[in-house]
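Figure 3 (text version): C-alpha cells given as input.
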C-alpha cells in the first residue's frame, strides 16, 4: 500500500504541475502576442489612404479675369526681361568692345531675377510677382496648393518656348554637320509646340485652364489675403496687390464711364429723332 500511495501522489503532482506549466507558457506567450498585435496595428496605421481628387472648382472661388491675367503677364515680363533687354541693348550698342564687366553684371543680375521670380518664389510661396500684383494664385479644386512642379511648368513655359525658337532658328540649317543640330532643333520644336498646345487649351477652356493646369488639376483664381495672415517679406509681397487692384479699378471705372456716355448719346439721338418726327 505504501508504494501505491507514493505512485498516486507522484501522478497527482504531475497532473497538478501540467496546468501550472501551461499557465506559465500562456503568461510568457501573452507579451509576444501583444507585441505582434501592436506591430500589425502600426503597419495598418502606416497605410495611407489616398485622398479623392477634386472634380471641379468650389463655388467659393472666382476665376481670374482677363484683366488680372494681363496684369500678371506684364508684371512678370517686366521683372524677368527688363534687365536682360537692357543688357542686350548695351552689348549691341558698345559692340562688345567696352563695358564688358558692366554687361556681365547686368546679365548675371537678369539671371538671378529670373531664377528668383520663376523658380524660388513659386516653390516657396506658390506665386510669382505677377500673381501677387494681380491678386491671383493657382489652387486645386478643394482650395489646396498644387504640386510645386505645376508652378515651374506654368511660369517658365513662355521662356522655354523662346529658348526653343532660338534653338530652331540657329540650328535648323546645320543638319549636315551631324546629329547635334538635329537633336537641338527637335527639342526646340517640342518646346514651341508645348507652348502652342498650352495656349490652345487655355483659349478653349471655360475655366481658362491650360495643358499643365489640367494635368495638375489647378485653377487660376482671384485671391486677396486677409490682414495678419502673413508677416515679414511675404506680407510685403501681398501688399503689391494694392497696385493691381487700383489699376483694375481705374480700368473698370473707365469702362463704366464709356458705357454711360454711350447710353446718354443713344438717348439723345432717340429724343432728337422723336422730336423731328
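Below: residues designed for each position.
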Amino acid at each position: 500500500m505504501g508504494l501505491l500511495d507514493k505512485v498516486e501522489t507522484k501522478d497527482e503532482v504531475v497532473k497538478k504541475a501540467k496546468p501550472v506549466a501551461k499557465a506559465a507558457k500562456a503568461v510568457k506567450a501573452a507579451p509576444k502576442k501583444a507585441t505582434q498585435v501592436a506591430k500589425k496595428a502600426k503597419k495598418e496605421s502606416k497605410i495611407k489612404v489616398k485622398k479623392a481628387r477634386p472634380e471641379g472648382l468650389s463655388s467659393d472661388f472666382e476665376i481670374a479675369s482677363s484683366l488680372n491675367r494681363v496684369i500678371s503677364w506684364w508684371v512678370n515680363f517686366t521683372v524677368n526681361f527688363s534687365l536682360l533687354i537692357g543688357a542686350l541693348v548695351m552689348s549691341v550698342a558698345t559692340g562688345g568692345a567696352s563695358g564688358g564687366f558692366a554687361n556681365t553684371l547686368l546679365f548675371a543680375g537678369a539671371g538671378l531675377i529670373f531664377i528668383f521670380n520663376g523658380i524660388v518664389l513659386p516653390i516657396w510661396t506658390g506665386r510669382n510677382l505677377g500673381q501677387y500684383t494681380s491678386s491671383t494664385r493657382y489652387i486645386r479644386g478643394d482650395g489646396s496648393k498644387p504640386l510645386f512642379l505645376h508652378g515651374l511648368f506654368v511660369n517658365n513655359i513662355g521662356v522655354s518656348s523662346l529658348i526653343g525658337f532660338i534653338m530652331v532658328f540657329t540650328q535648323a540649317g546645320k543638319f549636315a554637320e551631324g546629329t547635334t543640330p538635329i537633336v537641338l532643333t527637335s527639342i526646340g520644336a517640342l518646346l514651341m509646340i508645348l507652348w502652342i498646345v498650352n495656349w490652345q487649351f487655355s483659349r478653349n477652356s471655360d475655366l481658362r485652364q491650360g495643358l499643365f493646369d489640367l494635368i495638375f488639376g489647378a485653377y487660376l483664381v482671384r485671391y486677396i489675403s486677409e490682414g495678419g495672415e502673413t508677416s515679414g517679406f511675404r506680407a510685403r509681397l501681398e501688399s503689391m496687390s494694392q497696385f493691381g487692384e487700383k489699376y483694375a479699378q481705374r480700368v473698370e471705372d473707365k469702362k463704366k464711364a464709356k458705357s454711360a456716355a454711350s447710353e446718354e448719346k443713344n438717348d439723345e439721338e432717340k429724343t432728337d429723332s422723336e422730336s423731328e418726327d
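The two ends are 148 Å apart (CA to CA).
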